[in-house]
Amino acid sequence: MNRTDRLYALVEDLRAVAPRVRTARELAGRYEVSVRTIERDISALQQSGVPIYADVGRRGGYALDKRMSLPPLNFTAAESVALAVALERSVDTPFAHAGRSALRKILAAMSDSDAASARELVGRVGLIERHDPVVAQGIPTLVEEAVLSRRVLEFGYRDRFGAGTRRRVEPMLLLHGKSGWCLVSWCRLREAPRCFRLDRMVDIILTDEPMPVRALEGCDLDIPEHKLRIVAFG
Prior knowledge:
Blueprint: H1 3-17, H2 24-31, H3 35-47, E1 52-55, E2 61-64, H4 77-88, H5 96-109, H6 112-122, H7 141-149, E3 151-158, E4 164-177, E5 180-187, E6 192-197, E7 201-210
Antiparallel strand pairs: 1-2, 3-4, 3-7, 4-5, 5-6
């Protein structure tokens, strides 16, 4: 588990037991790191504004402000099953692992009776496995992190003719088309927007450099406007 994932997991761990505490030793054992690493992680979360406080004493530990705990969610069994089915059909979409984590949080926050109904209902829905010639490629974790954190990405790239170049780009949009997933980016080599197929990227490096805000409007992506649909809530 990388540090970013561990920081998220620590918050959810403390949220789940709030207002009770977990000791640094308990957390270190759970995440297979040292107590000192946990102390540094908690300090980083506190500095970023997460309301974690330390309860000193022999039975002390770390606790999350109970106001940060999730209120009861009013998802129906059918709604939660619909999300589960969508996730099963979306194994190669961006942030698929985050979607599964979100579904587990939803089930944990539902009442016992609603969660039981959801688990019973999901057992009555099946999906036939497809044996397509093309295996789902998935989204490289570093590409997801670059889009999420708005940081510059570096990678080796081979074009359709097999010519290789080294690119440093500013990610703008994850785009799915007939050739699979692409990353629309501002390419610093070409000084122009470019579409990069994820299956042609190698030796990906996520840099610490933040990227400037760039608008898609006005970018010539050679994609008919009526065929480009941006994902939205609602």
